[in-house]
Amino acid sequence: MKNPRAIAMLVLSVVIGLVATVVASGWVAQQGRAASNKVVVAAVDIDLGSKLNPQQLKTVDWPSGSLPNGAITDPQTLQQRGVKTSVMRGEPILDAKLAPIGSSGGLSAVIPEGKRAITVRVNDVIGVAGFALPGNYVDIVVNTQLDNEGHGDKQISKIVLQHILVLAVAQEANRDETKPKVVNAVTLEVTPEQAEKLDLARSVGTLSLVLRNQVDKQGAETGGIMKRQLFAADVLKSPEPVQPKPATRHRKRAVPAAPAAPTVIIVKETVEVIKGVQKGSVEF
To answer: What are the boundaries of each domain within the chain?
Structure first.
């Protein structure tokens, strides 16, 4: 016959174990909730300039110790807010990535306060073979003619703007692309003064874009380059002339003079001859 006391102890042990498991699970869940916060992230990829809607957003638990600065916890505050940079799926929506409240969507939401956007026509050469993509920085070079009529060499190339942000190429402003794209127009972010300078440079000469490093913000002071400087002696040195070898003088060998012919001295003698009354002379 089975021992009722042993059976009771076994049942009691099982009940206590189940209770302990439930209590421990609740405690762990509570500690996890206390150590995390709800953060709004992108549910899909969001393009630059887009306006946010509930279908594009979701909330996830985020560890409190690594909460990013400017994170949004309430998705209701993001209704109809535009983003000024591309956001990937699962990436948190930060205040620094949002356009000001009340701004419309599109490229205008990307332009910071005090800046302007201007579009210039380019080709595959001027546009750096399609490598000038949104988010890159470029310098602007103009090739033009000087107005000084008295100057013989009037053609000049000069950097007129430096460290200019490319906002869009053609009608695309997505900054996640890395593949070169040849387009016929590039939109640049400039100040009002730079916009005036760029518009004048575009009307007086030919523009070229010079792609620069993303982190290089150092400006370069140049005076431009002219044709006479391009082919100056310090740029293209002509080969040194070959010095002619000194001519070798050949001394003429003295020719001995021919011996002088002997001098013949002829001595003539005159003899006077008298014949009768005639008198004469004979030479020998």
So the answer is: 44-110, 111-230
